[in-house]
C-alpha cells in the first residue's frame, strides 16, 4: 500500500504526526454573545430551561379545550391573550379566548384555530365563536420544550459557533461565554521575484499570491494573522524575519524556498532557529512541505511551530488546506472530524503515475442523468486559476492507475476554507 519514495512521509502519516504533535496552544477568554460567531467554544453548554418555556400559540386565532367544542359546537369568548400578555381572567368551561401568535396558551386549553376558520356571533349579550372546517386536538399549539429540553447539551467544547448557534444561545439567555483566544499565526513569502500587488513589477518578477490566499483562508477561520511580508532570498534577512515573527506568533508559516534550489534557504535557516520534524510528503501537488519546532517557546513552555509551504501557488493552497489547517485548528481549540469523502462517478477518464497521492481540482457536473465529477484542465501546480471553477478534489491514491468515464472515485467537496 505504502509506495512513498524513501524519506517521504505518506499523506496519512504526515497528518497523524502533525495532529499528534500539537495540542491546544491558546488560553480562553470571555466574549459577549454577538462577538462569539465563528469562535471556538471553550466549554460545554447545556440548556438551563425548556424552550419555549410555556405552551404557546402558532397562529392568530382562538384557543379552547377540544372537549368543550365537541360538546357544544360554539364557544363563548371570555378573554384574550397576546404575546407577552397572558390571559388573566377566570377560566369558564365552554369558553374560548382570542389568542395571538406566541401568546401563552392557558392550561385549560389544548387547541388553537386560526381566525380565518372562525366567526364571531353576538347572542344574548354574549360573544360566541363558531368554527368551521376540520380541526384536530392540539393543533397550532407549540409545546413547552419542543425546541430545547432542560439539560440537553446543546454545544460541545471545541465547537465552532455559527450564526444560528448565536440565536440558540440567546434563546437560553446566554449573554457572554468562554471561547478560545485566536491562535496567532505569522505568515511570510520568500523569493526575490515577488512583488506586492499594487506596486510596479519588472521582467522576471511576479506578484505574491501565496500570502494573500493564506491570509484569506486563515482569517476565514478566525486566526489572528500577523503579516510579515515578502522576504528576499537572503538567509540573514530570512532569519531576522523569522525571529520577528516568533516574537509575535505561536506558529510561523512561510511559503517558498523549501525545495532543493540554490536559493531555497528556508530549511537551512530553520535548522539554525529550531529543528525540522519532517520534510517532504508524498502528495501532488505539495511534496516539499516542511514542519518543524523553533527553539523559542510560548508562555506555556511549548516550542513554537514552523510550517513551510512550497512556493508553487497551488502546492501552497493544497498543503495549507490539507496539512497546516487541521493542525492549526486543533491548536486553536477546535474539535475537527476527519474529512468525509464521497464516492462519485467520473465525467471523463483520468490516469496517474505511481508515487504520490494526488489532489485533482474538479467541478461537480449535475445533469438529469445524475451527478458526476469533472476533473478540470490545468492541473499544474502553478495554475491557480483552476481553483475558481473547482468545487472539490478528486483524490487519487499513491498507486498509479487509470480510471474510465463513469468509474467511481473519491471526491472531497471543498469546505469553508476553499468554497
Ligand atoms: N530539482 C528539483 N526542483 C524542484 C523540485 C524537486 O524535487 N527537485 N520540486 C518542485 C516542487 S514539487 C515544488 S512544489 C517547488 C517548490 O519549491 P520551493 O518551495 O522552493 O518554492 P520556490 O522555488 O521559491 O518557488 C516555486 C515557484 O513558485 C513561485 N512562487 C514562490 N512563492 C510565490 C508566491 N508567494 N506567490 C506566487 N508564486 C510564488 C516561484 O516563483 C516559483 O515559480 O519546487 C520544484 N522544483
Ligand atoms: O509540490 Mo510540487 O507542487 O508537486 O509542484
Written overview of the protein:
19% of the residues lie in helices and 33% in strands. The protein has 419 residues and is an alpha+beta fold. The protein folds into 4 domains: 11-27 and 181-331, MoaB/Mog-like domain (Molybdenum Cofactor Biosythetic Enzyme, Chain A); 30-49 and 154-180, Molybdopterin biosynthesis moea protein, domain 2 (Alpha-Beta Complex), CATH 3.90.105.10; 56-142, Molybdopterin biosynthesis moea protein, domain 3 (Molybdopterin biosynthesis moeA protein, domain 3, Beta Complex); 342-413, Beta Barrel (Beta-clip). α1 runs parallel beside α7 and α5 crosses α6. Residues 1-5 have low confidence and may be disordered. The site of molybdate ion (MOO) has 8 residues, from loops.
Amino acid at each position: 500500500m505504502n509506495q512513498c519514495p524513501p524519506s517521504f512521509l505518506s499523506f496519512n502519516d504526515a497528518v497523524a504526526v502533525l495532529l499528534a504533535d500539537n495540542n491546544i496552544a491558546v488560553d480562553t477568554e470571555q466574549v459577549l454573545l454577538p462577538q462569539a460567531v465563528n469562535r471556538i467554544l471553550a466549554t460545554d453548554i447545556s440548556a438551563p430551561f425548556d424552550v419555549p418555556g410555556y405552551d404557546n400559540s402558532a397562529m392568530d386565532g382562538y384557543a379552547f379545550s377540544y372537549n368543550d367544542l365537541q360538546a357544544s359546537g360554539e364557544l363563548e369568548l371570555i378573554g384574550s391573550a397576546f404575546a407577552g400578555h397572558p390571559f388573566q381572567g377566570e377560566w369558564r368551561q365552554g369558553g374560548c379566548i382570542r389568542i395571538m401568535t406566541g401568546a401563552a396558551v392557558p392550561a385549560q386549553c389544548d387547541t388553537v384555530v386560526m381566525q380565518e376558520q372562525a366567526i364571531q356571533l353576538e347572542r344574548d349579550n354574549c360573544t360566541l365563536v363558531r368554527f368551521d372546517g376540520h380541526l384536530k386536538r392540539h393543533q397550532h399549539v407549540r409545546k413547552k420544550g419542543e425546541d430545547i429540553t432542560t439539560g440537553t447539551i446543546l454545544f460541545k467544547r471545541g465547537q465552532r459557533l455559527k450564526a444560528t448557534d448565536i440565536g440558540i444561545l440567546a434563546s437560553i439567555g446566554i449573554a457572554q461565554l468562554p471561547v478560545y483566544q485566536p491562535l496567532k499565526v505569522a505568515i511570510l513569502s520568500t523569493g526575490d521575484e515577488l512583488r506586492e500587488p499594487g506596486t510596479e513589477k519588472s521582467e522576471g518578477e511576479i506578484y505574491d499570491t501565496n500570502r494573500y490566499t493564506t491570509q484569506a483562508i486563515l482569517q476565514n477561520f478566525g486566526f489572528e494573522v500577523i503579516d510579515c511580508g515578502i522576504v528576499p532570498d537572503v538567509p540573514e534577512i530570512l532569519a531576522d524575519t523569522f525571529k520577528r515573527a516568533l516574537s509575535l506568533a505561536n506558529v510561523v508559516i512561510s511559503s517558498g524556498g523549501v525545495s532543493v534550489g540554490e536559493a531555497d534557504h528556508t530549511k537551512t535557516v530553520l535548522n539554525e532557529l529550531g529543528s525540522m520534524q519532517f520534510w517532504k510528503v508524498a502528495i501532488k501537488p505539495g511534496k516539499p512541505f516542511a514542519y518543524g519546532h523553533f527553539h523559542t517557546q510560548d508562555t506555556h513552555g511549548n516550542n513554537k511551530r514552523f510550517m513551510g509551504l512550497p512556493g508553487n501557488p497551488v502546492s501552497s493552497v493544497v498543503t495549507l488546506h490539507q496539512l497546516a489547517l487541521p493542525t492549526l485548528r486543533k491548536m486553536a481549540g477546535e474539535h475537527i472530524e476527519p474529512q468525509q469523502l464521497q464516492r462519485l462517478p467520473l465525467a471523463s477518464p483520468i490516469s496517474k503515475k505511481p508515487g504520490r497521492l494526488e489532489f485533482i481540482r474538479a467541478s461537480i457536473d449535475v445533469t438529469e442523468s445524475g451527478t458526476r465529477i469533472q476533473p478540470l484542465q490545468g492541473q499544474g501546480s502553478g495554475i491557480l486559476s483552476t481553483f475558481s471553477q473547482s468545487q472539490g478534489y478528486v483524490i487519487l491514491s499513491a498507486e498509479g492507475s487509470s480510471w474510465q468515464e463513469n468509474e467511481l472515485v473519491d471526491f472531497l467537496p471543498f469546505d469553508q476554507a476553499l468554497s
